Amino acid sequence: MMQPGMTPAERGRPAPTDPLARITAELIDRLGTQRYQLWCEGKIQLTVTGERLVIGVGSPFLLNWMQKQFRQVMSEAAQAVMGPAAQITFEVDARVSMRDKASAEKSPVDPLDATGEVVSDVSVGPQSLSINSAATKSNSLGTIQVVRQPQSGGPKSARARRLADLNDFVPGDANRLALAGAWQIANGDSPAFNPLYLHGGVGIGKTHLLEGICRELRKSSGSQQNVVLLTAEAFANYFTLALRDHTLPGFRQKFRSAEVLLVEDIDFFEGKRVIQEEFLHTVADLMDHGRSVVLTGDRHPRLLTKLSPELTTRIVSGMVCRLEVPDDSARRQIVEMKSNRTAQPLQSAVLDYVAQRFRANVRELEGALNCLQTYTEMTRQPMTVTQAREILCDLERDCLKIIRLADIERAVCSLFGVTGRELKSESRSRTVAQPRMLAMFLARKHTSTPYSEIGAHFGGRDHSTVMSAERKVKEWIQANAALNVAAATWTVHDVLGQLEQQLLAG
Domain 328-399's class? Predict the structure, then answer.
């Protein structure tokens, strides 16, 4: 058996010249071929920067697991190749996540595999900004253009992007309206609403719905479809390049000729006045010509306070849907669906445990399943609930969000547009008193802080004031009372939902 740390020459074979190839060879020798294939091959991305080896993994869960299991051996492999000064860093790498998703979704009977993923070839030159059709495949299923963010200025080659399927979206009771709206657009209908705006926290399905719409339009028969899917940041970058290169007419023609425009994360536009104005004109032109627009953001458009009123009113004139965290039943369906697509589906009791313990978003569920699936592949033994609890306990603890009084104060002030000084003041006006009571209620619900300390934090009040505020908010909840948020009226359930979403996601 070869001893770890031996050089390739000592092992009787020529040494690779590429540092990454040499590090890979070291890892194979130290871990063994079978263990390397199970844990590393296709599951990590190695990058060398100076004297540092960066190990990219697909999720925060796997990052934690890999650090605990393989930090020492990977550090030794890096030092054996790069010298004693070599250091290693683990990070979540989007390339690995996309590769894992593509591998999981690959199916020999998938009708999309016959034509490949359709992606625009975007090129930026001194005379024009063009979205070329050379790399865009056209067939009876229609033509889809998926626009991606440009690099610093040169041509960008097309890369395949696997799109999520609307049929795989498990809505739960709270998200059925959003899914119904997505299906209306995906079916090529002309819904009464336009635009469709989806908002909510991370990992609860906004991107899934946008990609699902794009995928369905591609599969649909009938006339050619020019569908553009991109992020708000990509739109801003294309616009900036068009300004720089004096190609605004070409930029506008390409985006305003879209039959369906899907834009992610428009909260990125906040505070960017010139880009907002261009985007507003693009959306208005499309809507005036009966073209569908679908947008996503992290908050209700009324809470995107740095968007122009003109853009905000355009958005709220359509249909605004908030996506909620999946409920118990939806989480159970999600983990079962994802587990059944793996080589070794997990037992029902294990799926029940995962669905009950990881509640924040779908990405946490996926990360937990990835850990259990990888462990199952390595041991080739059925997973039990006891084993699942042991494997995931550290990951579950690391994912807990510690909420502080300062976090609650910041979220309440941001939502209601008041300052921390006003929240702690003696003012009893409704615009200050109601946010203060909500802050005290949330402090009792999400922290273990005593009444007296909560009262002291919010203006030196005594414990009886905090208890009174808690009772009052519970009465509001029972009656689903209406509260004023900026210039709008919200139910207390919506207000608490927005605040808790910010607290748990932040």
Answer: mainly alpha
